[in-house]
């Protein structure tokens, strides 16, 4: 009997030993180290002709900046070079410039429309406007950013068949400051004025938010009712010769990207320019 148990143990022992043998360690194949990206940031500062819903900024950030750059549109409608600073919007932009983690930060600055006479936002073209633009340049540099001045987008106004560029004096002031302070400048005013004159009023009208003669939208905003979620805001759209719809935004964003690639060579790898 003892011999029977002994024989069984002899037979089972290798199986038990095999069951207790640890699995061999499989070393996964080595993988190459992941290269860290070197991100940049582009900040847009200005009025409604750069801002979301009405400006070239949305198309610029959405379609003309590569994934290696963070494009932040901080332009606000109705602001002049003075009120943008005084209300605190410029402080927000400066905080964006100081945010760590970016190899380079550029800030594109475009004002002029609301600096024109006629409202309480205006600035004096000979004294205030140039000094505010200089302040933008000085502050941006102090925050570690690279300022790029942009002359104001032209209005698409015509006198008969002749385009009326009412913003030319403000564009000239920006060009003078760019030369004085050695700042890259995108002459969007001159470029857009030439383009609008060449295409004529009928074609330029397509760049508006709505067709000529359309009723403006968003004049009456939905009100919140008790127990209901906050309603979404209806964008205020209209036909005018200043603000841009989607087609106009695309057209002038492409213009800005092309001029930027030429004026600031270091930005070329970050820009997507259509052939």
Classify the helix fraction into a percent range: 25-40%
Count of DSSP strands = 7
Report mean pLDDT, rounded to a whole number. Answer: 91
CATH topology: Rossmann fold
Quick recap:
The chain has 275 residues and is α/β, with parallel strands linked by helices. The protein is built from 8 helices and 7 strands.
Structural overview:
The protein is an alpha/beta fold and 275 residues long. It has eight helices and seven strands. It has helices spanning 2-20, 57-63, 81-86, 89-98, 128-142, 168-181, 188-205, 246-263; strands at 40-46, 69-73, 104-110, 146-150, 157-159, 162-164, 185-186. The model is unreliable at 1-13 (pLDDT under 50).
Properties at a glance:
275 residues; alpha/beta; Rossmann fold; two-stranded antiparallel ribbon; 8 helices
Topology:
Blueprint: H1 2-20, E1 40-46, H2 57-63, E2 69-73, H3 81-86, H4 89-98, E3 104-110, H5 128-142, E4 146-150, E5 157-159, E6 162-164, H6 168-181, E7 185-186, H7 188-205, H8 246-263
Parallel strand pairs: 1-2, 1-3, 3-4, 4-7
Antiparallel strand pairs: 5-6
Helix pairs in contact: 2-8, 5-6, 7-8
């Amino acid at each position: 009997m003892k011999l029977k148990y002994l024989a069984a143990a002899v037979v089972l022992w290798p199986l038990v030993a095999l069951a207790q043998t640890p699995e061999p360690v499989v070393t996964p194949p080595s993988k190459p180290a992941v290269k860290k990206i070197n991100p940049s940031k582009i900040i847009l500062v200005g009025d409604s002709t750069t801002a979301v819903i009405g400006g070239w900024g949305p198309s610029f950030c959405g379609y003309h900046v590569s994934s290696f750059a963070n494009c932040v549109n901080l332009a606000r409608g109705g602001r002049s070079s003075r009120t943008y600073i005084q209300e605190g919007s410029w402080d927000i932009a400066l905080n964006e410039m100081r945010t760590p983690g970016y190899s380079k930060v550029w800030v594109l600055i475009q004002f002029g429309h609301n600096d024109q006479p006629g409202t309480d936002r205006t600035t004096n073209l000979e004294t205030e406007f140039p000094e505010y633009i200089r302040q933008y340049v000085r502050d941006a540099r102090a925050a570690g950013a690279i300022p790029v001045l942009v002359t104001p987008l032209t209005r698409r106004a015509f006198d008969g068949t002749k385009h009326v560029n009412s913003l030319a004096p403000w564009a000239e002031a920006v060009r003078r400051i760019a030369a004085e302070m050695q700042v890259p400048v995108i002459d969007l005013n001159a470029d857009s004025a030439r383009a609008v004159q060449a295409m004529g009023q009928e074609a330029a009208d397509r760049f508006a938010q709505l067709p000529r003669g359309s009723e403006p939208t968003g004049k009456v905003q939905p009100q919140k009712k008790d127990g209901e979620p906050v309603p979404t805001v209806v964008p205020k759209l209209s036909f005018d010769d200043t603000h841009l719809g989607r087609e106009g935004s695309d057209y002038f964003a492409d213009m800005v990207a092309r001029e930027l690639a030429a004026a600031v060579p270091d930005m070329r790898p970050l820009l997507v320019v259509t052939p």
